Amino acid sequence: MNPPPPFFRPACQVATPTREAPALTHRGCSGRSTGSAGENLSHSQRRALDFLRGYVQAHGYAPSTREIKDALGHASQTAAVSMLRTLARKGAIRVSPRKARAIVIL
User: Is CATH 1.10.150.530 the right assignment for the domain spanning 43-105?
Assistant: First the structure.
């Protein structure tokens, strides 16, 4: 079986580092450990996580993607979903697929 084309792999797996050409990297290939939840988050990601915590504390359940979009000033619900996926990938939250408001803050 052939490996996938380079555009399907992270840049850090495409080129091998040499003295003349250091390895190409992208955001996910920094080599840093993800650590505990909340570490290595950007300012907007931390803001989104703070909003989620406050909303759950105030209401007892997670916000909808439309409420997240409105609170964070995103142009679309897709941007809010993308933020949730990023937070889940970084270990700050857990999202159950195909369930409304199924966000668990870790």
Answer: no
What's the confidence (pLDDT) of residue 8?
40
**pLDDT at res. 61:** 94
103 three-state secondary structure: strand
Distances (CA, A) of 63 to 8, 9, 19, 24, 79: 33, 34, 50, 38, 15
What is the residue extent of each domain of the chain? 1-31, 43-105
Q: Which two tokens stand for residue 46?
A: 């931390």
Strand-pairing partners, residue 95, are 103
Could you give the dihedral angle defined by the CA atoms of residues 93, 35, 50 and 86, in that order, rounded to the nearest 10 degrees?
-50
**For residue range 59-91, what is the model confidence (pLDDT) as tens digits?**
999 999 999 999 999 999 999 999 999 999 999
